[in-house]
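Weekly sync, protein design subgroup
Attendees: M.S., D.O., the rotation student, P.L. (late)

Item 1: inverse folding check
M.S. brought a backbone from last month's batch and wanted to see whether the design step gives back something sensible before we order anything. D.O. pointed out we never logged the input encoding, so this time it goes straight into the notes. Structure tokens as presented (619 positions):
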């Protein structure tokens, strides 16, 4: 028996601090700091933590085998399988088809649009991982808002929030639930009241949370959500780009004459881009690099005033009189929509890169006009600007390029493509496979790991997911994040750090009843989630909660559920939960918008969740 366990059984005194605890606490604090400052991507931080735990094994109690055990953990593999299944559903366009029905139901009424968004994002999130649901519905909801003359800002935060509360309906709604189930199963040998979650273990509680959250958003939340973007604005005005886009004509003696666009741009150090070339034959846009410039050509250039003036003086260009570049003016003749927004998800290979280092223009035949980072706009020196997760790029491209970008997992297209390449004929098969995965796990014929892996095989054999798409379907940053942090949770238990923290928190029982301590754990977990990720908070907080429950005479399983639900409930920041980050740029939100809308919801759901747990399971 471990010393901390013996102390726990012989009395309620707080355990003595050991060197192992000190080291694990130091690693945890450093981990929190790296997550908060984003010095490294979260998955890289987790990997570093794993390596440090192994190196300091004599004090952390983590052997090399335990250090890498996260990669073979059943929760990690199940999450991987569920990501592939979600990608398969996405390939069929099933969610987008639901979105089309949502649009026909909602029309132009804002209340109906909001209600449809909550229903069509929340309910499917209980069966399909909620992050892909939001990624698939961003363009649907954005188009719905614009068609109904509603600000996209009014619908996108509700889209994220609905997916979060919807993910609490079942075991597979979010990776957080799967990780919580795995951690709880590991502790079950020591605490008999604990067990691995079943498919619908907490659906009753999840339904309460979903209803309370929906009512809040439809009433109070709706009034608190700001209208950051106007549906009536030209997209260039929305990005405040009009002063940066100007038409210039190439004089006969210009240094640009007879050069290609690429050569002309390469020979100047000025921060300028050629967005469009216009001559008698028509308009030319990306790819522009190989077009040779002629006298009399009209170039639409992106540059600020001082850069434009210097360009005209040195290169022989003249302003086109009385010109104003609009979204309509930038449209290529008979080619359809050409200005679109691309959201950069956390799993994109472009994160931490620049447009220059990724050769974005040449690689995608597209030109970036501006970058939105929440409410911040970047319109200058974009080639050297490091791309961050959650950024939204305003891109100009031909329709063929846009359709290719829509199918590239490095981006989330914020508008529906006009010619999506979906495998709609596979929708019935995909739905049947998902229902089979859920059904077989629910009745206990197989566990969720087995059914999820079998579902992946079924999707490959039926052609829903092609073999060469398999690895691209997985968000590897999520997998490395989970695998790297699982050993930290083990170290918390092994060294007695969890016991110590649990004992400290349990002292609140001196002036609070058990249900009050349960609520305290819910609040603490939400604060931890706001700093680190939802997966990290559930890994670290469940062992602590179980220790505290034992000390105050509470039900450990009730405390596990409180931590699980709290870890999926970071409504107050755009960084604590991935779906919040995905809508950050497309909604044009400020960081504080999430606190204004989410803090009251956080408080309401903390009360609803704790009371629901007490009513269903007891405390």
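Designed sequence read out in the meeting:
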């Amino acid at each position: 028996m471990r010393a901390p366990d013996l102390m726990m059984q012989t009395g309620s005194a707080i355990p003595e601090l050991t060197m192992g605890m000190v080291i694990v606490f130091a690693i945890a604090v450093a981990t929190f700091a790296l997550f908060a400052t984003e010095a490294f991507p979260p998955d890289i931080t987790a990997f570093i933590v794993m390596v440090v735990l192994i190196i300091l094994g004599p004090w952390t109690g983590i052997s090399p085998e335990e250090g890498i055990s996260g990669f073979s953990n059943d929760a990690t593999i199940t999450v991987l399988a569920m990501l592939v299944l979600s990608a398969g559903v996405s390939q069929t366009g099933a969610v987008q088809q639901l979105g089309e029905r949502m649009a026909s139901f909602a029309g132009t009424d804002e209340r109906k649009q909001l209600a449809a968004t909550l229903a069509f994002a929340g309910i499917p999130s209980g069966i399909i991982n909620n992050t892909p649901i939001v990624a698939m519905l961003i363009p649907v909801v954005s188009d719905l808002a614009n068609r109904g003359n509603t600000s996209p800002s009014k619908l996108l935060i509700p889209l994220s929030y609905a997916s979060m509360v919807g993910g609490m309906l079942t075991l597979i709604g979010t990776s957080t639930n799967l990780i919580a189930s795995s951690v709880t199963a590991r502790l079950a040998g020591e605490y008999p009241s604990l067990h691995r979650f079943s498919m619908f273990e907490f659906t009753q509680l999840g339904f309460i949370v979903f209803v309370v959250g929906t009512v809040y958003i439809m009433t109070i939340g709706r009034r608190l959500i700001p209208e950051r973007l106007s549906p009536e604005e030209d997209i260039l005005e929305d990005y405040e780009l009009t002063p940066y886009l100007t038409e210039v004509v190439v004089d006969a003696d210009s240094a640009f004459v007879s050069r290609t666009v690429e050569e002309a741009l390469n020979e100047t150090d000025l921060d300028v881009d050629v967005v469009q070339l216009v001559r008698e034959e028509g308009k030319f846009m990306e790819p522009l690099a190989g077009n040779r410039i002629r006298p009399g050509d009209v170039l639409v250039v992106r540059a600020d005033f001082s850069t434009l003036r210097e360009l005209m003086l040195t290169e022989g260009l003249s302003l086109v009189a009385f010109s104003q570049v609009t979204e309509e003016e930038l449209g290529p003749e008979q080619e359809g929509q050409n200005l679109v927004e691309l959201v950069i998800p956390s799993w994109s290979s472009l994160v931490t890169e620049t447009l220059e280092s990724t050769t974005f223009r040449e690689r995608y035949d597209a030109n970036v006009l501006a970058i939105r980072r929440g409410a911040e706009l970047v319109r200058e020196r974009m080639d050297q600007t490091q791309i961050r997760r959650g950024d939204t790029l305003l891109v100009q491209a031909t329709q063929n390029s846009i359709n290719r970008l829509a199918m590239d997992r490095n981006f989330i297209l914020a508008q529906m493509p006009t010619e999506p390449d979906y495998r709609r004929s596979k929708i019935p098969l995909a739905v049947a496979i998902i229902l089979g995965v859920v059904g077989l796990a629910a009745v206990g014929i197989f566990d969720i790991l087995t059914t999820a892996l079998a579902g992946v095989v079924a999707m490959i054999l039926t052609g829903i997911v092609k073999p060469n798409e398999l690895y691209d379907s997985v968000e590897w940053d999520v997998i490395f994040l989970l695998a790297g942090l699982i050993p930290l949770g083990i170290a918390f238990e092994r060294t007695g750090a969890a016991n110590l923290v649990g004992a400290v928190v349990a002292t609140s029982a001196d002036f609070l009843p058990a249900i009050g301590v349960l609520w305290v754990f819910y609040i603490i977990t939400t604060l931890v989630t706001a700093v680190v990720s939802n997966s990290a908070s559930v890994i670290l907080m469940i062992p602590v909660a179980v220790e505290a429950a034992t000390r105050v005479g509470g039900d450990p399983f009730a405390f596990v559920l409180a931590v699980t639900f709290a870890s999926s409930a970071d409504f107050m920041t755009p960084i604590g939960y991935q779906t919040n980050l995905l809508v950050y740029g497309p909604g044009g939100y400020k960081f504080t918008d999430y606190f204004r809308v989410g803090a009251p919801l956080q408080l309401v759901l903390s009360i609803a969740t704790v009371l629901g747990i007490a009513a269903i399971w007891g405390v």
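Discussion: Residues 591-616 form the longest helix (26 residues). The chain has 26 helices and ten strands.
Action: P.L. to compare against the previous round before Friday.
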